Amino acid sequence: MTRVYVLTTSYPAHPGDAQGHFVAAEVRRLCESSRVTVLAPGQGRAPLADEQVVSLGGGDAFGFPGVLARLRQKPWRIGGAAEFVAGALRWLERAPTPERVIAHFLLPCGVPIATRSLRTRSAALEVVVHGSDARLFAALPLVRATLGNELVRAKAELRFVSSELQSLVLGSLPPEPQRILQARSRVEPCAIDVDGALSRQVARESVGILPSSRVAVIVARLVPSKRVDVALEACRRIENLQTIVVGDGPERTALARRFPEARFVGHVERPLALTYLSAADVLVSASLLEGAPTVVREARALGTPVVCLAAGDLVSWAKHDQGIHVVGVHAPVYCPSGHGASR
């Protein structure tokens, strides 16, 4: 079988953990045809299924509510990130050469870890660019040309989860590496997995939502970039609409004080988050910094309509999916009926 190494700064610590679940969904598919080893931060990680998981330390720098937020809270956590990078490079130096390396997140898994570790090896390299990593890359004018050249030298294939992120990263590069990497790039959202999610009726019963209730769900990290306050303000203006916020973060206390009518359930295990998505009449997202939001794709896979702003590829998705309602681009505002009319 093909040997594949997956590098990621985000991966579930246990079954049901929502962290990095999109990476885990792809790993499950890879395991069907390959021997997969996942390199992730933390200590004492156990496999979720058929993969091998290597714990590389530095876990304090990564995790909820995101690496950038964690570093802003405690800048000394950068030492944990350095520990993870050094641990990954040491492990890859000793490990057998794989046929394929997949690096989730452009920084630091793609560059410098994967590009440095493959300098003397012939493994195929795919770098998956998700969102915050793309924006960080584009915000580094002094080094992004060097990083782009590293990707060119490593013959990296770039997979962007949205066309917006592809334009952002490639557009920030000088002409020559831009030309080369453009030819090696494609747009393909990450895999999602909603297997085992409850039906709408059973989901509502399990979380105490009455059949007649009209319910909007917001699923997000409670950080400024997610603009949860904007989503809550929009929900507040719809009469008899119950709003449930799934997620946690530094803004939770202020949001709960400002929107006492909303129900905040905090950071929950992934099966419960899917239950709330399935039970809802509508998912509401006001973030403008999204490439290919996983929660939107999960909601649609469960049959739940979505109301969102024009972020990332959502406008193009809405052209092919009548259940995605983009507001602010001359589109009508969706109002949940309470009976899941579009489901």
Q: Which SSEs are present, and which pair or pack?
A:
Elements lengths: L1 E6 L13 H10 L3 E7 L11 E4 L11 H7 L4 H17 L5 E5 L1 H12 L6 E6 L2 H7 L5 H10 L3 E4 L2 H9 L3 H9 L1 E3 L12 H7 L7 E6 L8 H9 L4 E6 L5 H7 L4 E4 L3 H10 L2 E4 L8 H8 L4 E3 L5 H5 L5 E3 L17
Parallel strand pairs: 1-2, 1-4, 2-3, 4-5, 5-6, 6-7, 8-9, 8-11, 9-10, 11-12, 12-13
Helix pairs in contact: 3-4, 4-6, 5-7, 6-8, 9-12
Structure characterization notes:
The chain has 343 residues and is α/β, with parallel strands linked by helices. It has two domains: 186 residues, Glycogen Phosphorylase B (Rossmann fold); 127 residues, Glycogen Phosphorylase B (Rossmann fold). It is 37% helix and 18% strand. The longest helix is centred in the N-terminal third of the chain and has 17 residues. It is globular. The protein starts with a strand and ends in a 17-residue tail after the last strand. 44% of the residues are buried. The C terminus is likely disordered.
